[in-house]
Amino acid sequence: MGQLEALLRRCRAGDEEALEELIRRWERKLFYYARRLVANEADAWDVLQQTWVRAIRGIRAVQDSEKLVPWLYRITRNAAISHRASLLAQERWVDRMVSVEELSAGESEKTRWAPEDVHEGLKELSVHHRDALTLFFLQDLSIPEMASVLGVSEGTVKSRLFYGKRALRESLELSGKLL
Predict the structure, then answer these.
(1) What is the pLDDT of residue 59?
(2) How do the residues of the chain divide into helix, strand and coil, expressed in percent and rounded to 5?
(3) Which of 15, 67, 99, 147 could hold 10 in an S-S bridge, CB 3.0 to 4.6 Å?
């Protein structure tokens, strides 16, 4: 039995120490993710608090330890969406399906972005693109895991990554921060 599986079993049994350990392990990453989805740090803390309330209430439903982490990210994302519902309603855009080849086309191995510039550039993107890029680059989730977190198809994830990277590149080029 793996460490995460044992922790999940203890959490499902209502072990308060296990719940505290789960929070300690994932609070920083989930806060970082939430911070990319909302306007400011105070909002991110509110989202994180909602995440943990929902997670603790629903932890008994998680049977597979491999699904725990995507489940936590999905809860965080949903809490952020609820928090930003009025802003999300204003954003309108259409996903276009792209192939893996299109997704990787045009990527230059020589392109390097300074981390602080990427964080600034992410603020300029739509929530959908920022969400996908954050999960992919900063949280290191796979395409299938991202699809599960975002509640969309893998093709939609690929599309959001493709257009998000393009928008980020354009933003960094316009600001003169592309290395």
Answers:
(1) 95
(2) 75, 0, 25
(3) 15
